[in-house]
Automatic annotation (TrEMBL):
Compartments (UniProt record): Cell membrane
GO molecular function: oxidoreductase activity
Keyword Oxidoreductase belongs to the record: yes
Protein name listed in UniProt: NarG-like domain-containing protein
Xref: InterPro entries: NarG-like_domain (IPR023234), NarG-like_sf (IPR036197)
Residue stretches making up the NarG-like domain: 20-44
Keyword Chloroplast: no
Entry membrane topology: Multi-pass membrane protein
Source taxon at top rank: Bacteria
Gene Ontology CC annotation, any one: plasma membrane
Record field: transmembrane: 20-39
Keywords, sorted A to Z: Cell membrane, Membrane, Oxidoreductase, Transmembrane, Transmembrane helix
Length: 54
């Protein structure tokens, strides 16, 4: 007996989990990436800059 092939479905069609995975997660990842770079840019100068004191 052979099993008929199941139709392929995209993960975005599977409900809330698919929406979370394919819509929300990329934006959250991008926001963390950008904010991490901004934070690193702003704090690295305080560490690398000589204070001129002492």
């Amino acid at each position: 007996m052979t099993v008929p092939p199941q139709p392929l479905t995209l993960a975005a069609e599977t409900g809330a989990g698919g929406i979370l995975l394919w819509v929300v997660l990329p934006y959250v990842s991008l926001a963390i990436f950008v904010l991490g770079h901004v934070w690193r840019y702003r704090t690295s100068f305080a560490v690398l800059r000589p204070s001129g004191r002492g």
